[in-house]
Amino acid sequence: MESDTHKSVLELFRRTAETVPAYRLFLADKGIDPDAVGDIAAFRRLPLTTKANYHQQYSLPERCRGGELPHCDMIAVSSGSTGTPTFWPRTAADESASTRRFEQVLVEAFGARLRRTLAVVCFPLGTWVGGLYTVSCLRRLAEGLPMTVIAPGNNKTEILRVIPELGRHFDQVVLLGYPPFLKDVIDTGIREGVEWGRYAVKLVAAGEVFSEQWRTLLAARAGLDPLRDVASLYGTADGGVLANETPLTIRIRRLLADDPEAARDLFGAPRLPTLLQYDPADRFFETMDGTLLFTSDGGVPLIRYHIADHGGIIPHDRMLEFCHERGHTLPSDSRPHLPFVYVFGRTFHTVSIFGANVYPENVAIGLEQHPVSAWVTGKFVLAVVEGSDLDHRLEITVELAPGESPTEARAQAVAASIRTQLLRHNSEYANYVPADRQFPHIDLRPAGDPAYFPVGVKHRYTR
What we know:
Blueprint: H1 4-19, H2 21-29, H3 40-43, H4 51-55, E1 74-77, E2 87-90, H5 95-109, E3 117-121, H6 129-142, E4 147-150, H7 156-166, E5 172-177, H8 179-191, E6 201-206, H9 212-222, E7 230-236, E8 240-244, H10 247-257, H11 260-267, E9 274-277, E10 284-288, E11 291-296, E12 302-314, H12 316-325, E13 340-345, E14 351-353, E15 356-358, H13 360-367, E16 376-386, E17 392-400, H14 408-425, H15 427-432, E18 441-445
Parallel strand pairs: 3-4, 3-5, 5-6, 6-7, 17-18
Antiparallel strand pairs: 1-2, 7-8, 9-13, 10-11, 11-12, 12-13, 14-15, 16-17
Helix pairs in contact: 1-2, 5-6, 13-14
């Protein structure tokens, strides 16, 4: 018997084939009769859509319902981290599913229904999807909550001005932004005398994978509960917010962070992905060759869209069974009863040396160790450089915290900390890279260095 989820996915497919000119042409070009797609098995045989074969082949109006761009009321722009920025039209109704993901974090985890909440949007504001999209979703959510939204964007000075002014009037303050920027805000606030513990701060991060050491570090500095006060969203310009961390996923991920062997068995990789839960009624995930694809409605409906993120999906019961088999105890009522999706990110965020892939997540852990974490921001750029004798070396350019100076001793301390974590978490690096080449070359740069760490720009970890 066909599930309700499968029925809704098939209905979305049929409606898209009927009303979206580009998708109708796409199917015709592939020789596919939409009427012949009668069950979920046939749906799973449909060709994937991508930016290359779909968005770059058909005009923007053709990809909208009815072939009319004015049917959408707003347009966002992707970050361009994978190439040329892409325009994403949407309607207010499209934000309903994403708003439910914010609700799961702010209401169910942070208790925003009972606590007066100040939501501070620290994503960049402008045509980029993060800031204005978040503001729009939060305002919809705030209609039924004692919550107020303010959007200083990624203006750190303004953020640190409004929090002491407004935070004292609320029961909690929620900061929403990219992980490195949130850390910078917390660290700068500490240097400027902000007493974060007074504001019951919570963090909502998006845009990249962070380690459990990062979560623990931020929790300690801002007086947070790492299990309940820091949550990550899986958001994209393409499909909005697709999934979110819950207290259950965080608990499981922290258990796996201390059990690398179990993590490798579960995820098939030497690094820890972001682990989230999703509602298949809003976003229908599939996997192919270790990468994710999803189907969702929107201003530009997406059918079997290959987003190129490496990851996978795990049914709820299977995840709990795995944890039990490994001796990890979870709450007896492990809510929410939703499937899990794990996300490593895009493969182009890695570099390769001696055949070993080096991931930003592995390096980030090294920068989060004592005493290194006290004088770096956590931002870095990975590169593999070739010397005059054609030897390759791993070079990592690291941003110093404001007011900190580069020294050879500090560079060596950073190199040693990163090497230790690479050997612990990355078996390829430990086994492929010769021992005398395992220490990376470290270039310490001042905060905001325009060549590597320009202010106000989404950070890129590889060159």
